[in-house]
Write a structure and sequence with these properties.
- The chain has 366 residues and is of the alpha/beta class.
- It has two domains: 58 residues, DNA polymerase, domain 1; 289 residues, TIM Barrel (Alpha-Beta Barrel).
- The chain contains twelve helices and 14 strands.
- The strands form three sheets. Strands 3-4-5-6-9-10-11-12-13-14 form a ten-stranded mixed beta sheet.
- Helix 5 packs parallel to helix 6.
- The longest helix has 15 residues.
- The radius of gyration is 21 Å and the shape is globular.
- The model has no long low-confidence stretch (mean pLDDT 94).
- It binds S-adenosyl-L-homocysteine.
- S-adenosyl-L-homocysteine binds next to strand 10 and strand 12.
């Protein structure tokens, strides 16, 4: 991918995009302003997409000047915008001098889903995911996470983003605090006002963080399961060695056990000859029989150097029929944006890898 680096200036100013309602109210209290100012600020920033304090006409001139002096509204900058033949848009965003993340917008009949990243790279090493190959640099700030919506809304126009999924680069539950602040803003009536059914966090299954999430949030949950046995999941999603399937499913039940929550979506990437046999389908049925769930079968999206092949359409259909026959709800995810490398597991950005994963992979294969 060719594009010129954008120098990102460092700034000592407080970035107001980092603040959810609570934090914004605390900030207003600190500067001697009433709590309702927090709502006004959130509306200007998130609903109206304004980053220039001079335009915030219901704030006093003095307050506007003070905010301009000490704070800023700074979203990541677009370095590359691409549009797929199917209408999917991908933006590469510069987060700091050496790192970039990717955000994808997927328009569908009657809805538009924005897929946002939560980390630069990923610290997990799922064997079939290209983000994993990039290694890991750092967590995104809340401003950089919500900033992806802020930027996409500016580019797309109002009303296009109806759903948000935390399914871009990174493991959201390993960036707990910032992800919670950003999702609070997605749900806040004075910011993006999305319903909890339309904001979905996808996780590889960090069990203790899942329990903590249940305490503070009621967004929808998707879990990257991908295998019906620990033996196979250990290989595909190595974090399973730490949080095996049984513990993960118990945590899922605790999560949806709380009032108003629905089903967990289990993501299952279809890998030819690896996890796609009728026996795997039956094992999956047994596993999920006690969890209110639906299964989303994901056709594997290839990337350079991938060690897997995707299951054939027939194998996917057969697999989904076995799930249906057992009474499970199963859908097959439509692959979108693969011509611009915007499909699941293809987001790579630019990661100044601190884990030296590339070097380790090369050493292991030589
Ligand atoms: N780390 C989180 C968020 C990423 S979501 C998680 O694991 O859930 C991205 C989804 O795409 C996950 O379900 C992931 O397992 C899946 N995925 C990764 N690589 C893929 C690939 N090459 N083809 C299809 N899906 C893939």
């Amino acid at each position: 991918m060719k594009s010129t680096p954008v120098p990102v200036e460092r700034s000592e100013k407080l970035n107001l995009l980092d603040l959810d309602r609570k934090a914004m109210e605390a900030f207003c209290a600190e500067i001697g302003e009433k709590p309702f100012r927090a709502s006004q600020l959130l509306q200007w920033i998130h609903q109206r997409g304004v980053d220039d304090f001079a335009r915030m006409t219901n704030l006093s001139k003095a307050l506007r000047a003070r905010l301009a002096d000490t704070t800023e509204i700074r979203a990541p900058e677009i370095v590359l915008a691409q549009r797929s033949t199917d209408g999917t848009c991908k933006w590469v965003l510069q987060t700091d001098a050496r790192n970039r993340v990717e955000t994808v917008f997927i328009p569908e009949e009657g809805r538009g889903t924005l897929c946002v990243s939560s980390q630069v790279g990923c610290a997990l090493e799922c064997s079939f995911c290209s983000t994993a190959r990039q290694g890991f640099n750092r967590n995104l700030t809340a401003a950089e996470i919500i900033g992806q919506i802020w930027v996409a809304r500016r580019e797309l126009g109002e009303g296009r983003i109806t759903n948000v999924v935390l399914m871009g680069m990174g493991e959201p539950l390993l960036n707990f605090h910032n992800v919670v602040a950003a999702t609070n803003l997605m749900l806040d009536d004075f910011a993006y006002g999305l319903s909890k059914r339309r904001v979905t966090l996808s996780t590889s299954g960090i069990v203790p963080a899942l329990d903590r999430l249940a305490e503070v949030s009621d967004i929808s949950l998707a879990v990257s399961l991908h295998a019906p046995t620990d033996e196979l999941r250990n290989e595909l999603v190595p974090i399973n060695r730490k949080y095996p399937i049984k513990e993960l499913l118990e945590a899922c039940k605790r999560y949806i056990g709380r009032e108003g929550r629905r089903k967990v979506t289990f993501e299952y990437v279809m890998l030819d000859g690896v996890n796609d046999s009728p026996a795997h389908a039956k094992a999956l049925v047994r596993l999920l029989s006690h969890v209110p769930s639906k299964v989303n079968l994901i056709p594997f999206n290839p990337f350079p150097g991938a060690n897997y092949r995707g299951s054939s359409p027939e194998a996917i259909r057969r697999f989904s029929e076995l799930l249906h026959a057992a009474g499970l709800i199963a859908t097959i995810r439509k692959t979108r944006g693969d011509d611009i490398d915007a499909a699941c597991g293809q987001l790579v950005g630019q990661v100044n890898d601190r884990t030296r994963r590339q070097a380790r992979l090369q050493a292991a294969s030589s």
